[in-house]
Design goal:
Elements lengths: L45 H6 L10 E6 L2 E7 L4 E6 L2 E2 L7 E2 H5 L5 H6 L1
Antiparallel strand pairs: 1-2, 2-3, 3-4, 3-5
């Protein structure tokens, strides 16, 4: 009787490593479709920050920093609201504004703040 390893159908391929697109990467979960995204560290331009104003009261906005040179939101002290910055784009919609108290509690979207 022949060994099962002699069977060509049972041998594994010796073609080499998997193609780069199939190599698992840290943070990627191919089963759920969640993939790690590269973290970009690009700050908003000072010119843009100087012309932005609160859409509710037209007051000045102050940046909420997540890290040095990384703006996570724009706060209006007069209205006590924070407008989130997503992918370096300030979301200046009243519907997306997060109350200052909720922002300090870690809520980063208006939906999270309403659900709390």
């Amino acid at each position: 009787m022949a060994k099962h390893t002699d069977n060509p159908a049972m041998k594994t391929s010796q073609a080499g490593p998997s193609p780069p697109s199939l190599v698992p990467r840290p943070g990627n979960d191919y089963r759920t479709g969640k993939y790690a995204q590269k973290e970009r560290r690009v700050a908003l331009s000072p010119e843009l920050l100087s012309i932005l104003a609160c859409p509710k009261c037209k007051g000045d906005l102050t940046p909420c920093l997540a890290a040095p040179d990384v703006i996570e939101g724009l706060a209006c002290p007069a209205c006590a609201m924070v407008y989130p910055v997503r992918e370096d784009i300030p979301i200046m919609l009243l519907e997306e504004a997060v109350p200052d108290e909720a922002w300090k509690a870690g809520k980063r979207s208006a939906k999270d703040a309403r659900d709390a």
